[in-house]
Amino acid sequence: MPEPTYESTARELRTDRGVLRYHEFGAGPPLLLLHGSGPGVSGWQNFRGNLPALAEHFRCLVLEFPGFGVSDATGEHPMAAAAPAVPRFLDGLGLSRVDVVGNSMGGIVATRTAIDCPERIGALVTVGGMGRNLFSPGPGEGINLLTEFAEEPTRERLVRWLNSMVHDRSLITEELVEQRWRLATAPESLASARAMYGREALAARAAAASASGEPPTWAVLDRVRARTLITWGRDDRVSPLDMAIVPMRTIPDVELHVFPDCGHWAMIERKQAWESAVLAFLTRPDGAA
């Protein structure tokens, strides 16, 4: 199988809420991959390195969420636009049921989809981010650095935030910084970062959540019916490991895999070990111990 490139895998799906852009690679049962948030983020940035291994078993579909500078924005808050994009995307491709991998915010979206549309999600894999702080202060260091960048975007602040995402800082190369800086400072991406992580935005979202009376996702994880694998970096400074305790204890059919010497990007920093754990889980017959 040839190595995936941006151009060879790029696809577009026209919907009634604008164009959803995605990457497709491999053949087999469909596997939906959902990216996280942050300056210059994209599905391609998150998962391109994992596609060769995953595509040996699956038709990989890397969705770009609306409002992050790749797919068309819907006019909604980026986090509000993300969850509805999933069933719209699946409907547009004629897919009734998929396995799904979600990184950070993408893991939260995947989990919400598994709760709200249980018939559409077969197996669920998350990478950090899901749950709530029990012992560590919240928000975590990485979120605070993200807020600083959103408030005043400088290259130095971007580098500080990127360094908080990993255990091994040698992964934060000049090439990566340049890619993220270019994407993060595009007008739509910068507006998205401010809408999600600016101080006023964070305060407004917390107030709205309190006023709604709706339970947070972490409080209804017992409703997840999908087989679930939670993957986490032991040294995650964005979503500290103690956040995994609630989902590990409340999701009915769940496993937890923790990677040592690893930060928030387990699928990048512990690439081969992460791919091995995820493929072992996804290719195991349903219900097998």
UniProtKB/TrEMBL annotation:
Domain of life: Bacteria
Keywords: Hydrolase
Regions crossing the membrane: none
InterPro entries the UniProt entry points to: AB_hydrolase_1, AB_hydrolase_fold, AB_hydrolase_sf
Annotated ranges, domain AB hydrolase-1: 29-270
Pfam family, any one: Abhydrolase_1
SUPFAM superfamilies recorded: alpha/beta-Hydrolases
Gene Ontology molecular function: hydrolase activity
Name this protein carries in UniProt: Alpha/beta fold hydrolase
